[in-house]
Amino acid sequence: MFIYLFLLSLPFTLLSISFLYLVYARSPDKFIWAALAAAVFAFCGAIISFAVYKRSDNHNGFFTRVKHRQLLARMIIDNKLYLTKNRNRNNPRQKIIYFPKVYYHYKELIITVRFPMDLQKNQDKFNRIGEQLEQALFADLFDIVDEKGFKAYKLINDPIQNRIDITDIKPNSKEIELMHGFTWDYNKFPHALISGVTGGGKTYFIQALLKSFIDLGADCYICDPKMSDLSQLDQVPILEEKVFSSTGQINKCVREFYEQMVDRQKEYKELLRKAGEIGKDYRNFNMQPKVLFFDEYVAHMSNLDFKEQEKTLGYLKQIILLGRQLGFFLVAGMQRPDAKYFEDGMRDQFGLRVSLGQMSRSGYIMMFGESDKNFKVQSDEVRGWGYASIGGAYVRAFFAPFVPSEFSFYNYLLNKDEPSQLSGQSRKAIAERGRGTPSEAARAKSGGRS
């Protein structure tokens, strides 16, 4: 640090000395005043240099990258991850005969460190260095890539800086951005499993996903057995008669959601037959996506008897297995992903898995499976933090979209006349087919209004 500050303040120091020299050469009697002015100038230069250094360090600028390279060099030297040999028999001093070529790259908060895979002595250490990199660089490891001759570790430097506001989410027909550089392709990796401790931000994150799908023009249904914040949305016109809280209502909603999917499957097969093509999904036929938001799923299941549990699990299992191509999606929220209610690998079928707040090691295993991820704890002042994985990829740190205090989710939906991205062509196609559900036909005829 002191070396950097010295280099930054060096121009101010040289200018001060030059100024003193010129004053002394021309007017020696004014030297004292000139010295005071030069001292003030040099002091101001030191303050400016310190401010520049701190800003660069705090905002992951040039000096952050320099420090990272220094840490990597020290790691190699201090751990003796190089090869040496004696210079000769009479000289016990050693010389380095092999020093690993480690490549460091930094771009848009993404750090990539490449270690050589060249069968040298320390290759095994380079294969297991991910956790050390996280700690040393104060970054989050989110991917490990095997490249030709190298193993690349990809980390996010200070991941909270990639957090976005809920108002910044701009979904499209393919994906939803959850953080800068972290998007969920819900058609490729369908369904979301969200777990979180009380106060961890689970409900706010579900609201962010609900907002995104409504903006996309999706037909959304909400099940909230604990009658918490989501149950209050039943007064919003766009969600009228689509919010359920009682056990009977929720069971009926799940069954009818499944039946809608079965009806669409028949229609989809007929449209495929007429088109004479394969490899298409609901988007190719302008079908409206449908999303079932099921908060506190485990709490609801625990209140059912065995027969009702079997029925509900059967419906949800079919939705999870068949929904992607037909445009039917499930977003399930719970405090703990109990394996009892996710039989036959159902949990592995969720494309997006998010845990919010601090969980036990067993909780992380239930959520993400066995992982060598080093799960760290954030400050109590940080809300909506946790870990996420898409498509079974490496678990990474996650910060849910931030909800400003002035943002009212209820008012946002209340002022929303119609799904913004449900095109006129889609509404017309739904109406002309005449075989959609009553809600589809009503939405199409009314121009998208619920």
UniProtKB/TrEMBL annotation:
Residues 179-365 form the FtsK domain. GO terms for biological process: cell division. The chain crosses the membrane at residues 6-24, 31-53. ATP binds at G196, V197, T198, G199, G200, G201, K202, T203. SUPFAM superfamilies: P-loop containing nucleoside triphosphate hydrolases. Keywords: ATP-binding, Cell cycle, Cell division, Membrane, Nucleotide-binding, Transmembrane, Transmembrane helix. Residues 423-450 are annotated as: Disordered. InterPro entries: FtsK/SpoIIIE/SftA, FtsK_dom, P-loop_NTPase. The keyword Membrane applies. Pfam families: FtsK_SpoIIIE. One of its GO terms (molecular function) is ATP binding. This is FtsK SpoIIIE family cell division protein. It comes from Liquorilactobacillus uvarum DSM 19971.
